[in-house]
Structure formats: C-alpha cells, structure tokens
Design goal:
Blueprint: E1 2-6, H1 11-22, E2 26-31, E3 46-48, H2 54-63, E4 68-71, H3 78-83, H4 85-106, E5 110-116, H5 139-158, E6 161-167, E7 169-171, H6 189-197, E8 204-207, E9 219-220, E10 222-224, H7 225-236, E11 244-249, E12 255-256, H8 257-268, E13 274-277, E14 286-287, H9 292-298, H10 307-320
Parallel strand pairs: 1-2, 1-4, 2-3, 4-5, 5-6, 6-11, 7-10, 8-13, 9-14
Antiparallel strand pairs: 9-12
This protein binds uridine-5'-diphosphate-4-deoxy-4-fluoro-alpha-D-galactose.
Uridine-5'-diphosphate-4-deoxy-4-fluoro-alpha-D-galactose (UFG) binds near residues 192 and 280.
Amino acid sequence: MNVLVVGGAGYIGSHAVRRLLLNGHIVWVYDNCSLGHAAAVPENLLLQGDLRDQEKLTGILREKQIDAVMHFAAFASVPESIAEPAKYYDNNVVGTLRLLEAMRAAEVWRIVFSSTCATYGIPEKSPISEETPQRPINPYGFTKLTMEQALEAYAQAYGFGYAAFRYFNAAGASPKGDLGEDHNPETHLIPILLQVALGQRPHIAIYGDDYPTPDGTCIRDYIHVDDLSDAHIRALDLLEPGQGIRLNLGTGHGCSVQEVLAACRQVTGHPIPAVQAERRAGDPPELVADNRRALQLLGWEPAYPQIEATVETAWRWHQSHPAGYGD
Ligand code: UFG
C-alpha cells in the first residue's frame, strides 16, 4: 500500500515507518518536526507540514495516491494537557479532524489511529479489557476518546475503516539502537532511569510508594515500540470500509516502578540511586492491558514480553545516542 505516516518522525511513528518499509509498503512521512526528529526518518520520505494544514494534507494524499494513513501526530503528556488543554484540543482534536477531512476530500478511507489507555481513566478492574468503560481523568485522555468517537461516526457515515489502538506504556528502541526515545524535557520512567545510568542525572525520583500495589509503586504495562509497529502493519490488512477495530496494545503483564528500576540496574550494571518523592498528579495505581483481543484479531504476539529485553534495547539507544538525535 501507499501509506502516509502522519507524525512519522516521532518516537513510535519512526519505528512504524521502518517496519512499513521492511514490509514492502511505499511510505511518506508527514511531520512538522516540532517534537519529531528529521534524523529519525529517511530524508527523501519526509514531507514537512502541520497536522492542521488540511489543504496541504489533501494535496499530498491525492498526489501520492495514498491508500492508508497512520496517525501518530499528537501531544501525549498528561501533566501538560492539564496545564495547557487548549494546545491538546487544538492539535489532537482539531488537527485530527482536519486530517479526516483531508482524507474525505481525497477519498482515502483507511486509517490506523494512536489512542491510549489514558481513555480508561482509573479502571475498576485489572487487566483492562476493551469493554471497560472509558472515563478519562485528564484532557489528554479526553482528546483521544473524542477522536475514537469521531472515527466511529466517520466509519458509520462516510465509510471510513479504522483501527484505534489503545497503547499502554510504549518503551524500548530499535534492536540496532539507532532509533529511540528522545523527548525534551524527558518525563518517562525508562529514559530517565537510563539517563541516571549514563551519569546525566544524579538519581531517579520515585513518585509515590503508598499505592495499593504489592510494593507500593505504580504498575504499568510496558510494550515495546516494535511490537506496537508490528500491530499497526497487521491492521492494514484488516481494515474494512464502515468498520472499526478498537484494541488494547500491551504485553498483558504489569511492572511496578520498583521492578523497572531493578531491571534497569540489572541491564546497565549501574546502581541507579533512587529517592522517594510525592505522588505525581493524575497517576492511576495500575494500568495493565487485557490484550487477548489483539492477539486473536491481529494474530499478533509481543516479541518483547519481558521488561529486561525491552530495557536492553533502550539502553543500546541511550548509550549510542546520549544526546538523543542531537537536534
Ligand atoms: N515515574 C517515576 N519517576 C519518574 C518518572 C515516572 O516514578 O521520574 C513513574 C510514574 O509516576 C508512573 C510510571 O513511572 O507511575 C510510568 O510513568 P511514565 O511517565 O513513564 O508513563 P505514564 O504511565 O505516566 O504515561 C504513559 C504515556 C502517556 C499516557 C499514560 C496513560 O506516556 O502518554 O501512560 O496513563 F497517557
């Protein structure tokens, strides 16, 4: 297929681009490089532009005869979405609607959309199935839920065929260590732990040790970024006009902050000093995917079920790119 990867210069998008190319698809990347990195994608595939530029998007969809869109371009920080909701609604909702309208104008009906476990809010049960009521507790989660709902309406009314993937915690890097996570500022647990191991930070602050979990720290489901990419590519073949697929993408296993810390110490051989800190606002105690529907529907299975293997790939990236992409 001819695939336009919107936000393809970002962390997850750049891994998807590589895998699409490996699978023989023709790929174009659309990114404004505000958070993405030009160095993360082949230069000749990058089309610079903003998600909200409907005219430009329509032109590209037509000119490149695009069959399917993968949409990764979003702001995805929970605390920032609380402080700056306008920014989140403008990009994640208004921008995505512009993309959908461009697709409608260019008669492109296939889309794979990045949603999030943040649409579930604080679920009553763990692991979380797709039937769990979606009750976000922050603007980020609301923007993603709003777009899941819009996609369903576009499927019903205009014949879009979509997959909405609810990612759990994306982690890891390409096995070669040449694509990886580079956020500024960095807020995610694993990159911060590895920055401590590299001597770039003195310690990790553990946000809360009094959660109702076995060791008192928050539990998350860390899914390797290549496993996410794999699921996206499998979804392309399953899209049907007028139908939507909504799936959790996670390993199905939870790791506490303490367990991730232990894995990082083991992989790096560094003591990684840790200090206790206050809880961080908006952190649910436990988010673990019930991934059975994805396994069944996509014939997908995470290649990195263990946190240590995921951390190993991230460590390779951080060691070889201590300043990220350097841009
Ligand atoms: N944590 C620390 N210290 C740190 C950083 C993180 O203890 O320095 C803890 C957090 O409190 C949390 C866990 O590590 O319990 C994971 O935190 P991350 O920031 O790595 O990831 P989040 O679970 O907060 O965020 C992820 C995605 C978001 C998504 C969210 C859903 O990055 O896009 O899951 O809750 F919205």
